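Write out this protein's structure.
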Amino acid sequence: MTQKKKIVVLVVLLLLAGTIWYSFLYDRSSVSTDTVSVSENFQVISVENPSIHHDGLERARKTEYKGNGRDIFSSIPAPAPQPQNSNPGPKPQDIVAKPEPLKVPPPLPVKFFGYGSVPKGTTRLAFFTDGEDVYIVSEGEVLLNRFRILKVNNTNLDYEEISSGLRGTANLEEQGAPPSA
């Protein structure tokens, strides 16, 4: 495109922009007259007695909120109402709760005699013996297909019986000194 054509296109675009700007500038007068006509049609609402109604305020202050058990600040719906039974049975205060028997996990059938760790390792190892055999189990592994070792500490370890989920603690048992000669 030559220099002359570029100038002609620029002049045409400037004329088009000027026309649009002129139409917006002088077309605003019709909008402002519509705004005035709306405000001229405004009417004040008539109120017979604008004073404070003290009897209504007292009645509102004395009301007591009786909720249905739903948290008004939560979007979770209220629990369904319980059906009324003609024979409700014993009252909650009449029922004596029986204490559950204390569930104790079974003791480990092996002796926990030490612990260690692998260099640059993250889990600790526990050493067990049942007389002749020695078992080395790390945290999270299963011992004798029955006990999961949860945590190995310096003086004890925490374990869980897999079948019942009961948790227990086994203390580190010190080795006796060898007999002196």
